[in-house]
Amino acid sequence: MKDLVILGSTGSIGVQALEIVEANPTLFRVVAITAAGTNPQSLIEQAKKFKVSVIGVTKNADVLRAALPQATIIDGLDASTEIAAITCDIVLNAITGSIGLAPTLAALKVGNRVALANKESLVAGGDLVMSIAKPDQLLPVDSEHSALWQCLMGEKKSEVAKLILTASGGPFRERSDLSDITVAEALNHPTWSMGPVVTINSATLVNKGLEIIEAHYLFDMPYSQIEAVVHPQSVVHSMVHYVDGSTIAQASPPNMKGPISLAINFPDRIKGATAAIDWSTSHTWTFAPIDAARFPAIDLARRCGTLGGGLPAIFNAANEVCVAAFIAEKIRFTAIIETVEEVVQSLGSKSAGALRDLADVSAIENDARKIAHELVSKVAR
């Protein structure tokens, strides 16, 4: 039985992970969970159902203490970082945003294995993370990276020609005019059910840009060998193109339980973790190149990743500000990437050199957020 810590237990990934635990009670014991605490009742119900003795929150700690008198409640901005360092078999980091970097580093430093659903850990601090991660200590949860991981198993890196990430294309892949998109439209993803930030990032294709940076770090592959293509059905999650012309793909219905289960139970698969493809019916899967003119986020992310230093962290931090502004209906949909690019250009000269520690990451992110807020106020509608 594996001792499991879940960071972000009330989010989409965390909830699905707990469903896997519930379906496989002999495989996992949940020893700690964390969440922001904005929905304390959900956290209380999870703690009672899975008999969790350690809970971390950033708010509403008193509510949890009153409802769970026998549990240890850790509160404050560093709660997830502290809990990530609890000795366990696996830490599932399902936090959204670059605030997930510190917990990732904390878990790795004490030797915990990390199932990483927080791609921003690698975008904002990839060099820091990879400098301490040991082989098989950092396992991907994103469906695209889980697919690449599976396609690469047992293969020689020297024989890999390209990593090919698939993208659903979001709700606007066939829409020519993106200027008048509403928040409700952007949150209506055609394939996946995700949190609002990830859903907006999928609509702008920022998510795919972040995933290219993540793939660079996870698989130690140059950006010139990482591509993305539109695959609306979201059944083929990614592919690896080999030097002999062969392409190996990983396919399954669009459901995150497969990637989650593989990461938290590695090296073994969990029987029936997700539904299989029904090969008794007909299927049509299509693939198309990404329209870089309508969706410039991928090229911008690739440029930031290639130049390195603090640029990926700047890209991500500015995007977090702009997505929040769009959700609050302060800026247009197209202003998200336009503003992010302005921030990247503004801070480009200050981002050279490696980020040495968390303080460096925080400093460059704070600069990016400050400028992003200033720019958002200028373009606010």
What would your notes on this structure say?
The strands form two sheets. A seven-stranded parallel beta sheet has the order 4-3-2-1-5-6-7, sandwiched between helices. The chain has a five-stranded mixed beta sheet with strand order 11-10-8-9-12, covered by helices on one side. The protein has helices at 12-23, 40-49, 61-67, 79-84, 101-109, 120-132, 143-152, 183-186, 196-204, 206-219, 257-265, 297-307, 311-327, 335-347, 358-379; strands spanning 2-7, 28-35, 54-57, 72-75, 90-93, 113-116, 138-140, 160-167, 226-230, 236-242, 247-251, 288-289. It has 381 residues and is an alpha/beta fold. α1 (12-23) links the parallel β1 and β2 (28-35). It starts with a strand and ends with a helix. α6 packs parallel to α10 and α13 crosses α15. The radius of gyration is 20 Å and the shape is globular. It folds into three domains: 2-140, Rossmann fold (3-Layer(aba) Sandwich), CATH 3.40.50.720; 143-255 and 269-291, no CATH class; 308-381, RNA polymerase sigma factor, region 2, helix turn helix motif (Rna Polymerase Sigma Factor, Chain: A). It has 15 helices and twelve strands.
